[in-house]
């Protein structure tokens, strides 16, 4: 086969495959449960751990939320000074 024939055969294959309709790939559809359960479980575990620590420290603040605020302020001050 000459180069011209090889090239013509390649162009023919390309045109043939371009004419076929291929199904488009869809992004994997995540269900509502997959989108909500993981973050919700993370938040609940963090809240439970914070409440347990707050209770174990003989309740240093009025509420666990106030203690979380204090810890957040301390962490931000530490990160700013680094």
**Helix tally?**
3
Proportion in β-strands = under 5%
* Classification by helices and strands: mainly alpha
Portion of residues within helices: over 70%
Shape field: elongated
Largest pleated sheet? none
CA-based gyration radius: 31 Å
Instruction: State mean pLDDT (0 to 100 scale).
Output: 85
* Strands, count: 0
Task: Please outline what is shown here.
With 82 residues, the protein is mainly α. It is 73% helix and 0% strand.
Q: Could you characterize what this model shows?
A:
The chain has three helices and no strands. By secondary structure, the chain is mainly α.
Secondary structure layout:
Blueprint: H1 3-19, H2 32-56, H3 64-81
Task: List descriptors.
82 residues; mainly alpha; 3 helices; 73% helix; 0% strand
């Amino acid at each position: 086969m000459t180069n011209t024939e090889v090239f013509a055969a390649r162009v023919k294959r390309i045109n043939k495959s371009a004419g076929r309709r291929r199904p488009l790939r869809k992004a994997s559809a995540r269900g509502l449960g997959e989108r909500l359960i993981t973050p919700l479980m993370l938040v609940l575990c963090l809240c439970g751990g914070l409440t347990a620590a707050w209770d174990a420290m003989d309740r240093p603040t009025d509420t666990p939320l106030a203690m979380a605020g204090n810890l957040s302020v301390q962490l931000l001050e530490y990160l700013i000074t680094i």
